[in-house]
Amino acid sequence: MGAFVISKRYNDEYKFVFTSRKGKVVFTSLSYELKFECEEDIERFKMNMQSANFLKFKSSSGKFYFKLMLGDTHFATSRKYTTSLRLQKGIDEIIKYGSVSEILDFSVNDFIFID
């Protein structure tokens, strides 16, 4: 099963990624000023997945990606895929596991270093 992973960007804003069962990033959210906005949007996505729309694109370098839309709102952008089949597999993983995926928070530095 995939997971939503919350983290901080270098500019101190928050983002989340959806990772596949194998740990690869499938899509990355837009930036959020506050962490609770990330959490709210993840829950909103999980509850409204049936209204999600995947707009597929091909970059100038020949890579495939999608923009995830909730209603008319741009929600997230996928990583780049080498083939359209791999792109579709990424979308299928979101549809299959997105609503039941756990949320992991890596935005706080709770690491303890032992000498």
Question: Could you explain how this protein is built, in words?
Answer:
- It is a single chain.
- By secondary structure, this protein is α+β, with helices and mostly antiparallel strands.
- It has one domain: Roll (PH-domain like), CATH 2.30.29.
- Helix content is 23%, strand content 36%.
- It has two helices and seven strands, in the order E-E-E-H-E-E-E-H-E.
- A seven-stranded mixed sheet has the order 4-5-6-3-2-1-7.
- A hairpin with a 2-residue loop joins strand 5 and strand 6.
- The model has no long low-confidence stretch (mean pLDDT 90).
What are its keywords?
115 residues, alpha+beta, PH-domain like, seven-stranded mixed sheet, 36% strand, DUF1508 domain-containing protein, YegP-like_sf
